[in-house]
Amino acid sequence: MTTSIGNVASVAARAGGSVVRQVRSAIDPSAARPAGAGQPASGWLSVTVFREPSDVDTAALPAPLAEFGDRIEVRVRPAPGGKGTELAVRLRDRPSGTAASRLTGSDPQADLRSALRRAKQLIEVGEVLAVDPAPHGRRTATPGGALLEAWTKVAPKAGVR
Fold first, then answer.
1. Where is the sequence biased in composition, kind Polar residues (predicted)?
2. pLDDT tens across 108-119, in order?
3. 3-state SS string over the chain?
4. 3-state secondary structure 137-159
5. To 10 degrees, the CA torsion angle through 17, 18, 24, 30?
6. How is the chain split into domains, by residue range?
7. Could you give phi then psi for residue 72, rounded to 5 degrees?
8. Could you count the other beta carbons within 10 Å of the beta carbon of residue 87?
9. Is 114 exposed, middle or buried (0-12, 13-18, 19+ CB in 10 A)?
């Protein structure tokens, strides 16, 4: 009898810990990563583009990155192992983004991350690929649905975690 109560308590504790980690990562995404695994101190964001380095012209950047103008630094070099080109960008003046600014969608670093992802698609494919929008119409609001809608709005800036 005691063993089954201990097992239930153990499962409940693990489930509670999982919920706490999910909530913390929604409020502060850096909390979901282990110490030292956050953004590099240099602030460079990079992607590997499946093109030759000569095909990526820093003077004529794709529109998503060109909109940043002189506010960004751009670096282009061959990717390791000859697998395309590494395109890296960073903000010249890096404001510190808070959890509140990330949740409201006003994080310049997140905007740059999103622009870099779109620029990669433009260089490789020639267009920005998009997911079909949610169906039109009225849906009944539920707590889970509201959370999903809020996360969907900020997800394009967050990237894959």
1. 98-107
2. 888 899 899 999
3. CHHHHHHHHHHHHHHHHHHHHHHHHHHCHHHHCCCCCCCCCCCCEEEEECCCHHHCCCCCCCHHHHCCHHHEEEEEEECHHHCCEEEEEEECCCCCCCHHHHHHCCCHHHHHHHHHHHHHHHHHCCCCCCCCCCCCCCCCCCHHHHHHHHHHHHHHHHCCC
4. CCCCCCHHHHHHHHHHHHHHHHC
5. 110
6. 3-154
7. -125, 155
8. 26
9. middle
Which regions in the chain score pLDDT beneath 50?
A: 1, 32-38, 160-161
What pLDDT sits at residue 87? 94
Q: Are 25 and 76 in contact (CB under 8 A)?
A: no
The per-residue pLDDT for 144 is: 84
Residue 82 and residue 118: Cα distance in Å, rounded?
23
- To which residue do tokens 């009225």 refer? 138
**What's the maximum distance between 2 C-alpha atoms anywhere in the chain?**
72
Distance CA 5, CA 113 (A): 47
Residues 47 and 122 sit within 8 Å (Cβ to Cβ): no
